[in-house]
Amino acid sequence: MFGFIRQRAACRGNHASSLERGIRATALRTFSSSGKEMTVRDALNSALDEEMSADPKVFLMGEEVGEYQGAYKISRGLLKKYGPERVRDTPITEAGFTGIGVGAAYYGLKPVIEFMTFNFSMQAIDHIINSAAKSNYMSAGQISVPIVFRGPNGAAAGVGAQHSQCFAAWYGSCPGLKVLVPYSSEDARGLLKAAIRDPDPVVFLENELLYGESFPVSAEALDSSFCLPIGKAKIEREGNDVTITAFSKMVGYALKAAEILAKEGISAEVINLRSIRPLDTSTINASVRKTNRLVTVEEGVPQHGVGAEICATVVEESFYYLDAPIERIAGADVPMPYAANLERIAVPQVDDIVRAAKRICYRSH
Amino acid sequence: MAQLTQRAATFQRTLSAAAFSVSSTRCLNTASTSPITVETSLPFTGHKIDPPSRSVETTPQELLSFFRDMALMRRMEIAADSLYKAKLIRGFCHLYDGQEAVAVGMEAAITKKDCIITAYRDHCIFLGRGGTLLEAFAELMGRKDGCSKGKGGSMHFYKKEGGFYGGHGIVGAQVPLGCGLAFAQKYSKDENVTFAMYGDGAANQGQLFEALNMAALWDLPAILVCENNHYGMGTAEWRAAKSPAYYKRGDYVPGLKVDGMDALAVKQACKFAKEYALKNGPIILEMDTYRYHGHSMSDPGSTYRTRDEISGIRQERDPIERIRKLILSHDLATEKELKDTEKEVRKEVDEAIAQAKESPLPDPSELFTNVYVKGLGVEAFGADRKELRAVLP
């Protein structure tokens, strides 16, 4: 499907930042349009395929990743191409296989550990934090952990309380981890490739409902050396009146809200965070200094959440630029209910974002 | 001890003591590598496997090095006890004295390309893997010449180039990690094995069984070594485990019960296990051992054990005394020479401590180093973010 050039392309920060400057300069259409569209699922699949092809140390491990082709078909075709040594089906034992993955990373391999959903990562969270995140520090650089933990995060549709939690804030508060939150197919490709190449432990939070969504991809993004910088947000839509920060599925909602707001004469700047840790506070602050108003959007609960952190950093760095208090749109402070109507009001909807933006512009009635 | 002096007195030295200088390179004559066969204290007990013979091949050189290495480890741990009481070591300090035979016996059977991973009672394993006394003491005292630059502490010693992967504080976590090392060795076609060590307390951890299941499914060269010192902190094994026959707990995975106070038995078992694991996948070794100290420096170790029990083990089963008796009975050194070795070792330890005390505390900028391998130029903050901030390298 794509030209899999066998490249051991170094994804250095310098290289990426010139690329990223290119992205920010014209906000959206930096890359030559390829006319191609790609689902997030295919984007992730191609990223895994290319990185496994380029580096024999990369392997995939998790439940159903092999013969089942992936619980969400993200790893379709990889078993056939790379064999059972490199695409490992595991028993349902997260603590065990996550520990095994981290141990393999200690030795120098580059594991990609799939959690069927991040809810199950809690069974293995000790290994993610104590065995992976902290090792490079505790060993003063002797034991590095080049591992990626990936899988769907947050609410799906009707899966209930134990299968709907968003872990962005939890993992985002751990020094030693990098936490990425792709939205589009380009995000998925570029960030997963960057994550696999990164020498540190990366928590890669996908979203089940985005897997089937199609996005246009540039020719550059289709290249096997394509990488996005870790720790840099993307301005998805430029605007002047209010900044809206979002990540993962909420980026789509924020963009829809921006369309509605535009019709009412409010120009919203939508920031796709892409990275929870490190958080791109300079992009956020630069935007708020321009628009003077901020709405943060996230699926997880507001208390101790990503929005709370963004509020704090903006108050610290850009207090005198704010024309209104910051608004947080977040998930309801409840475990996720099952009934469709309750579920709908337990997570942010486009209306909620629009309402908050109007309120902050003193336009609500 | 009385028995020992009596036996020593019956031996006549044919060569004058002056002909030998007492050091670890003492036996340079050709006889030093000539094989001696010794019987282990007890036969091995196997679970779903035929145990190895209790006749162990060794050499005078090996026995003398066992003595010296164990004496060094013993001295290091005793010295750490004093440093802790002098408040030069802070936080946790879990001492290994009594268990030295496991560390030295294992090293004698393997290479530095094999991996060892253990929990927090790691000082002596670190030494066995090539760590120095200075690195150990400096780390314990939180100085920059420590093996983890003072940032790890007692529970986080590492020596990657010696195949030692730590040093872990979370009970049981090191076992899946060790199976991961074995996974990587097999993936890389390295023909080496990993020894994942854990205690009788950790033996009940679920993640151990999860990892063992996968190790067995995938034939990983993983050797799980239960250092059964019979107490998980203050809880005796019979109060924690329905089945304290830890070598049998692998069920479908074979196991061997070993006298962990007999360095030669440990060596034989580890050699056997390595050969087995390279061909067949995981195996469990239960080392029957004992710690003289409590669980850690905050535990006197005598509220859940009788003093008679502790002194009884010291008299009957001490690993260093066993080797001393062996050396003397085979006429490989005199009692005086062995005592001189112990004095030498003590001097070495004292010098290392003096040197470690000279080592400074890490520079405050080290607070922010090694958070990441690739820091991406990200900012990190101290308690007062306006006061203390840094860019992660």
TrEMBL record, chain A:
InterPro entries: PDHB_mito-type, THDP-binding, Transketo_C/PFOR_II, Transketolase-like_Pyr-bd, Transketolase_C. Its main location: mitochondrion. Its cofactor is thiamine diphosphate. The pyruvate dehydrogenase complex catalyzes the overall conversion of pyruvate to acetyl-CoA and CO2. Residues 38-213 form the Transketolase-like pyrimidine-binding domain. GO terms for cellular component: mitochondrial matrix. GO terms for biological process: pyruvate decarboxylation to acetyl-CoA. It catalyses: N(6)-[(R)-lipoyl]-L-lysyl-[protein] + pyruvate + H(+) = N(6)-[(R)-S(8)-acetyldihydrolipoyl]-L-lysyl-[protein] + CO2. Pfam families: Transket_pyr, Transketolase_C. Tetramer of 2 alpha and 2 beta subunits. The lineage of its organism: Eukaryota, Viridiplantae, Streptophyta, Embryophyta, Tracheophyta. It is found in: Mitochondrion matrix. It comes from Sesamum indicum (Oriental sesame). It is an enzyme of class 1 (oxidoreductase). Keywords: Metal-binding, Mitochondrion, Oxidoreductase, Potassium, Pyruvate, Thiamine pyrophosphate, Transit peptide. This is Pyruvate dehydrogenase E1 component subunit beta. GO terms for molecular function: metal ion binding; pyruvate dehydrogenase (acetyl-transferring) activity. Its EC number is 1.2.4.1.
From TrEMBL, chain B:
SUPFAM superfamilies: Thiamin diphosphate-binding fold (THDP-binding). GO terms for molecular function: pyruvate dehydrogenase (acetyl-transferring) activity. Its EC number is 1.2.4.1. Signal peptide: none annotated. Keywords: Oxidoreductase, Pyruvate, Thiamine pyrophosphate. GO terms for biological process: pyruvate decarboxylation to acetyl-CoA. The keyword Mitochondrion does not apply. Pfam families: E1_dh. It catalyses: N(6)-[(R)-lipoyl]-L-lysyl-[protein] + pyruvate + H(+) = N(6)-[(R)-S(8)-acetyldihydrolipoyl]-L-lysyl-[protein] + CO2. It comes from the Eukaryota. Its cofactor is thiamine diphosphate. Residues 68-364 form the Dehydrogenase E1 component domain. The keyword Ligase does not apply. The pyruvate dehydrogenase complex catalyzes the overall conversion of pyruvate to acetyl-CoA and CO(2). It contains multiple copies of three enzymatic components: pyruvate dehydrogenase (E1), dihydrolipoamide acetyltransferase (E2) and lipoamide dehydrogenase (E3). Tetramer of 2 alpha and 2 beta subunits. This is Pyruvate dehydrogenase E1 component subunit alpha. It comes from Sesamum indicum (Oriental sesame). The lineage of its organism: Eukaryota, Viridiplantae, Streptophyta, Embryophyta, Tracheophyta. The gene is LOC105168190.
